[in-house]
Amino acid sequence: MLKRGGLHVAGRLLFFQKNGQFNRHLQHKPFIIVIMKFPHFLLIILVVAGFSLQAQNNMPDNTPYKIVFQLTSADTAVQRAVIKQINNVLAAAPKSKIEVVCHNAGISMLVTEKTYQADKIKALTGRGVVFAACENTMRDRNIKREALVPEATTVPSGIVEIVKKQRKKWAYIKAG
Description:
This protein is an alpha/beta fold. Helices cover 40% and strands 23% of the residues. The protein is built from 6 helices and 9 strands, in the order ββββααβαβαβαβαβ. The protein has helices at 30-37, 39-58, 76-92, 118-126, 135-140, 158-167; strands spanning 2-4, 7-10, 13-18, 21-22, 66-71, 97-102, 130-134, 153-155, 171-175. The strands form 2 sheets. Strands 8-7-6-5-9 form a 5-stranded parallel sheet, with helices on both faces. Strands 1-2-3-4 form a 4-stranded antiparallel sheet, covered by helices on one side. Helix 1 crosses helix 2. The longest helix is centred in the N-terminal third of the chain and has 20 residues, at 39-58. The radius of gyration is 30 Å and the shape is elongated. The chain starts with a strand and ends with a strand.
Protein backbone atom coordinates (compact mmCIF):
# COMPACT_ATOMS: atom_id res chain seq x y z
CA MET A 1 0.00 0.00 0.00
CA LEU A 2 1.01 3.53 -0.78
CA LYS A 3 0.23 6.13 1.87
CA ARG A 4 -0.47 9.74 0.85
CA GLY A 5 -1.70 12.15 3.55
CA GLY A 6 -4.23 9.86 5.21
CA LEU A 7 -5.45 8.45 1.88
CA HIS A 8 -4.25 4.93 1.05
CA VAL A 9 -4.33 3.54 -2.44
CA ALA A 10 -4.69 -0.22 -2.67
CA GLY A 11 -5.23 -1.26 -6.23
CA ARG A 12 -8.37 0.59 -7.31
CA LEU A 13 -9.96 1.02 -3.87
CA LEU A 14 -9.41 4.03 -1.68
CA PHE A 15 -9.54 3.88 2.11
CA PHE A 16 -9.61 6.85 4.44
CA GLN A 17 -7.48 6.41 7.51
CA LYS A 18 -8.53 8.17 10.70
CA ASN A 19 -6.65 7.72 13.95
CA GLY A 20 -4.57 4.98 12.42
CA GLN A 21 -7.58 2.79 11.50
CA PHE A 22 -9.26 2.22 8.15
CA ASN A 23 -12.93 3.06 7.80
CA ARG A 24 -13.94 -0.24 6.19
CA HIS A 25 -17.55 0.88 5.61
CA LEU A 26 -16.18 3.39 3.07
CA GLN A 27 -14.02 0.92 1.16
CA HIS A 28 -16.46 0.72 -1.79
CA LYS A 29 -17.36 4.41 -1.79
CA PRO A 30 -14.35 6.32 -3.13
CA PHE A 31 -16.49 9.36 -4.02
CA ILE A 32 -17.48 9.82 -0.37
CA ILE A 33 -13.82 9.62 0.59
CA VAL A 34 -12.93 12.36 -1.87
CA ILE A 35 -15.74 14.55 -0.48
CA MET A 36 -14.58 13.92 3.10
CA LYS A 37 -10.99 14.76 2.20
CA PHE A 38 -11.80 17.64 -0.16
CA PRO A 39 -15.19 19.22 0.79
CA HIS A 40 -14.80 22.02 -1.76
CA PHE A 41 -14.86 19.34 -4.49
CA LEU A 42 -18.62 18.87 -3.90
CA LEU A 43 -19.22 22.59 -4.26
CA ILE A 44 -17.35 22.65 -7.57
CA ILE A 45 -19.39 19.69 -8.88
CA LEU A 46 -22.68 21.36 -7.90
CA VAL A 47 -21.73 24.67 -9.53
CA VAL A 48 -20.65 22.98 -12.77
CA ALA A 49 -23.83 20.87 -12.84
CA GLY A 50 -25.96 23.97 -12.28
CA PHE A 51 -24.35 25.83 -15.18
CA SER A 52 -24.74 22.76 -17.36
CA LEU A 53 -28.47 22.49 -16.61
CA GLN A 54 -28.99 26.19 -17.20
CA ALA A 55 -27.24 25.97 -20.57
CA GLN A 56 -29.43 23.02 -21.56
CA ASN A 57 -32.62 24.88 -20.61
CA ASN A 58 -31.68 27.92 -22.72
CA MET A 59 -31.04 25.88 -25.84
CA PRO A 60 -33.92 25.55 -28.31
CA ASP A 61 -35.48 22.14 -28.72
CA ASN A 62 -34.76 20.97 -32.27
CA THR A 63 -37.43 18.29 -32.21
CA PRO A 64 -39.79 18.78 -35.18
CA TYR A 65 -43.06 18.73 -33.23
CA LYS A 66 -46.28 18.65 -35.24
CA ILE A 67 -49.10 20.65 -33.65
CA VAL A 68 -52.60 21.43 -34.89
CA PHE A 69 -54.51 24.25 -33.17
CA GLN A 70 -58.30 24.39 -33.36
CA LEU A 71 -59.71 27.93 -33.24
CA THR A 72 -63.47 28.32 -32.90
CA SER A 73 -63.69 31.67 -31.10
CA ALA A 74 -64.32 35.15 -32.52
CA ASP A 75 -62.99 36.65 -29.28
CA THR A 76 -60.01 38.80 -30.27
CA ALA A 77 -58.33 38.09 -26.91
CA VAL A 78 -58.43 34.36 -27.68
CA GLN A 79 -57.10 34.98 -31.18
CA ARG A 80 -54.28 37.14 -29.80
CA ALA A 81 -53.50 34.38 -27.28
CA VAL A 82 -53.24 31.67 -29.95
CA ILE A 83 -50.82 33.85 -31.93
CA LYS A 84 -48.75 34.33 -28.76
CA GLN A 85 -48.80 30.57 -28.06
CA ILE A 86 -47.60 29.82 -31.58
CA ASN A 87 -44.75 32.31 -31.21
CA ASN A 88 -43.83 30.71 -27.87
CA VAL A 89 -43.79 27.23 -29.43
CA LEU A 90 -41.57 28.42 -32.28
CA ALA A 91 -39.21 30.14 -29.84
CA ALA A 92 -38.87 26.94 -27.77
CA ALA A 93 -38.97 24.45 -30.67
CA PRO A 94 -38.21 26.30 -33.92
CA LYS A 95 -38.43 23.23 -36.15
CA SER A 96 -42.07 22.58 -35.24
CA LYS A 97 -44.78 22.25 -37.88
CA ILE A 98 -47.92 24.14 -36.90
CA GLU A 99 -51.35 24.37 -38.49
CA VAL A 100 -54.20 26.51 -37.19
CA VAL A 101 -57.62 25.29 -38.31
CA CYS A 102 -60.22 28.07 -38.06
CA HIS A 103 -63.88 27.17 -38.21
CA ASN A 104 -67.18 28.30 -36.78
CA ALA A 105 -66.71 31.76 -35.19
CA GLY A 106 -62.92 31.33 -35.27
CA ILE A 107 -62.89 31.94 -39.01
CA SER A 108 -63.13 35.67 -38.26
CA MET A 109 -59.38 35.65 -37.57
CA LEU A 110 -58.83 34.86 -41.26
CA VAL A 111 -61.38 37.32 -42.71
CA THR A 112 -59.51 40.41 -43.89
CA GLU A 113 -62.22 42.89 -42.80
CA LYS A 114 -62.55 41.40 -39.31
CA THR A 115 -59.08 40.33 -38.21
CA TYR A 116 -56.68 42.28 -36.02
CA GLN A 117 -53.98 39.66 -36.58
CA ALA A 118 -53.25 40.05 -40.32
CA ASP A 119 -49.63 41.21 -39.86
CA LYS A 120 -48.91 38.46 -37.35
CA ILE A 121 -50.52 35.84 -39.58
CA LYS A 122 -48.31 37.01 -42.46
CA ALA A 123 -45.19 36.83 -40.28
CA LEU A 124 -46.03 33.37 -38.95
CA THR A 125 -46.85 32.07 -42.43
CA GLY A 126 -43.35 33.19 -43.40
CA ARG A 127 -42.07 30.91 -40.62
CA GLY A 128 -43.99 27.92 -41.99
CA VAL A 129 -47.23 28.10 -39.98
CA VAL A 130 -50.35 27.14 -41.94
CA PHE A 131 -53.65 28.93 -41.33
CA ALA A 132 -56.56 26.92 -42.73
CA ALA A 133 -60.16 28.10 -43.10
CA CYS A 134 -63.00 25.58 -43.08
CA GLU A 135 -64.91 25.62 -46.37
CA ASN A 136 -68.07 24.38 -44.61
CA THR A 137 -67.99 27.43 -42.34
CA MET A 138 -67.24 29.68 -45.31
CA ARG A 139 -70.27 28.31 -47.14
CA ASP A 140 -72.54 28.62 -44.07
CA ARG A 141 -71.47 32.23 -43.48
CA ASN A 142 -71.27 33.25 -47.16
CA ILE A 143 -67.57 34.04 -46.96
CA LYS A 144 -65.78 34.07 -50.32
CA ARG A 145 -62.17 32.95 -50.69
CA GLU A 146 -61.25 36.50 -51.73
CA ALA A 147 -62.44 37.77 -48.32
CA LEU A 148 -59.74 35.80 -46.49
CA VAL A 149 -56.25 37.08 -45.76
CA PRO A 150 -53.98 36.11 -48.66
CA GLU A 151 -51.91 33.75 -46.48
CA ALA A 152 -54.90 31.56 -45.57
CA THR A 153 -55.48 28.17 -47.13
CA THR A 154 -58.78 26.32 -47.12
CA VAL A 155 -59.78 22.78 -46.17
CA PRO A 156 -63.10 21.10 -47.03
CA SER A 157 -63.93 20.40 -43.36
CA GLY A 158 -62.14 21.89 -40.35
CA ILE A 159 -62.98 19.01 -38.03
CA VAL A 160 -61.97 16.37 -40.58
CA GLU A 161 -58.67 18.23 -41.11
CA ILE A 162 -58.00 18.07 -37.36
CA VAL A 163 -58.85 14.37 -37.24
CA LYS A 164 -56.53 13.67 -40.19
CA LYS A 165 -53.70 15.48 -38.41
CA GLN A 166 -54.34 13.55 -35.20
CA ARG A 167 -54.24 10.24 -37.08
CA LYS A 168 -50.83 11.32 -38.41
CA LYS A 169 -49.66 11.78 -34.79
CA TRP A 170 -50.03 15.57 -34.65
CA ALA A 171 -50.61 17.01 -31.17
CA TYR A 172 -54.00 18.68 -30.78
CA ILE A 173 -54.46 22.02 -28.98
CA LYS A 174 -57.90 23.58 -28.49
CA ALA A 175 -57.57 27.37 -28.55
CA GLY A 176 -60.33 29.30 -26.83
